[in-house]
Structure to design on (442 residues):
């Protein structure tokens, strides 16, 4: 089966790289799914969970990452996801995210609330 | 013990104490360079991908954008100078400041007005002492900059360049002066024009961000991208991130350079202390020898005088 190479890169580190058969991300004009052979694409990401259907060395499975803003670019079967902040679902501390959500709600901080919400959704969509 | 010798011993003791401190600082700096270098390397994938994306948009569309358009007659230029918060780093800060001065003079020569932005308290105090106006300054993170710090610095700069030059605080160009980390031994202050971006159309009709921090190997022909939602919107979102990532990279390199400069300065301080101890020990030994010689000659002289006196009374 055809696969595409994915690089998930945050501002200060490379979060994940590997092969995948499908990547679903949220751009500013809606969710977009990229499969091998997609035409070259460059888009702006909204903060939201990114789903990566992994294949190859990393094994078949589904991985979800919480991505806060950034870009998606695809060319030559290479997909890069650039984000200022990106976390894989198994790196996310659920309790901390829940606390952050509570705090953001009480402070009425829309940005922080959104960040915490995205984190939690990334975790729950895996389980 | 003679008075001379006591003075030497005291100085040796104080120099030894100083040497211990400088040696410790040298080792701390050495361990921090490695960490800082690692962070520079970790930030590279993001910067590379971002540069690629900017190049792709620039090539794949004829979009005009306020961050890329050259102003016909630029009148105001922002200069971001990156120094450190603390000294004890040899010529690190003064070299960076000197590079900024040269750039300022050049820009003034071209008839531009300078708007200064400064990172690091060394630069701030240099400008403060000379009573020069500073638009904005940031301190407190130069040893260990995070991406959030870079964002904080980039925000006002991007705002300033968005403004019209006629309006308050607007600038046409953005220059950045920082110390580039070339190797453990070499760090050079450089000035780069960050905005407006410079694109170069090469023979193969491929655009390249020539002043990018990451030099890509050879011209690369980019595929025709589909932009989501539109080329303008992508560029709008992309360019501020690009500026942030460039500033982040500059901050990280400056931090690594600062640690390397500190290490070198502290190493030479330790070496100097060792030399000083050596020559002081020589002097102390000579003084001790002189003391002994004097004592012997006093004893011999005294014994001789006694013998003479005894010989006189025997008679």
């Amino acid at each position: 089966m055809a696969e595409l190479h994915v690089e998930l890169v945050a501002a200060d580190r490379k979060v994940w790289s590997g092969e995948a058969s499908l990547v679903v991300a949220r751009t500013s004009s809606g969710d977009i799914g990229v499969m091998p052979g997609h035409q070259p694409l460059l888009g702006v990401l909204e903060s939201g969970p990114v789903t990566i259907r992994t294949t190859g060395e990393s094994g078949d499975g589904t991985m979800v990452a919480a991505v806060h803003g950034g870009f998606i670019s695809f060319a030559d079967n290479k997909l890069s996801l650039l984000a200022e902040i990106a976390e894989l679902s198994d790196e996310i501390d659920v309790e901390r995210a829940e606390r952050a959500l509570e705090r953001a709600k009480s402070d009425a901080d829309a940005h922080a609330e959104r960040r915490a919400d995205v984190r939690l959704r990334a975790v729950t969509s895996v389980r | 013990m003679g008075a001379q010798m006591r003075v030497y011993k005291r100085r040796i003791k104080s120099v030894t104490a100083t040497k211990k401190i400088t040696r410790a600082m040298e080792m701390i700096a050495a361990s921090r360079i490695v960490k800082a270098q690692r962070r520079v390397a970790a930030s590279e994938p993001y910067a590379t991908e971002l540069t690629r994306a900017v190049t792709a948009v620039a090539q794949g569309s004829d979009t005009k954008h306020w961050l890329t358009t050259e102003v016909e007659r630029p009148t105001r230029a922002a200069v971001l100078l990156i120094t450190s918060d603390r000294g004890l780093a040899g010529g690190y800060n003064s070299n960076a400041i000197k590079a900024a001065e040269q750039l300022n003079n050049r820009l003034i020569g071209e008839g531009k007005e300078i708007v200064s932005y400064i990172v690091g308290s060394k630069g701030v105090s240099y400008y403060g002492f000379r009573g020069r106006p500073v638009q904005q300054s940031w301190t407190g993170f130069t040893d260990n900059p995070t991406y959030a710090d870079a964002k904080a610095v980039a925000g006002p700069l991007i705002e300033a360049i968005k403004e019209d030059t006629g309006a308050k605080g607007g600038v046409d160009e953005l220059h950045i002066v920082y110390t580039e980390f070339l190797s453990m031994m070499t760090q050079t202050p450089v000035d780069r024009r960050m905005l407006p971006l410079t694109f170069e159309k090469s023979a193969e009709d491929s655009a390249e961000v020539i002043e990018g921090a990451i030099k890509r190997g050879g011209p690369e022909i980019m595929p025709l991208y589909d932009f989501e939602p539109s080329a303008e919107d992508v560029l709008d979102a992309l360019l501020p991130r690009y500026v942030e990532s460039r500033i982040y990279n500059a901050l990280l390199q400056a931090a690594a350079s600062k640690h390397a400069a500190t290490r070198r300065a502290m190493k030479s301080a330790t070496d100097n202390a060792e030399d000083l101890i050596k020559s002081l020990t020589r002097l102390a030994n000579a003084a001790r020898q002189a003391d002994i010689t004097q004592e012997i000659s006093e004893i011999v002289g005294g014994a001789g005088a006694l013998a003479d006196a005894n010989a006189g009374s025997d008679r």
About this structure: The longest strand of chain A covers residues 13-27.
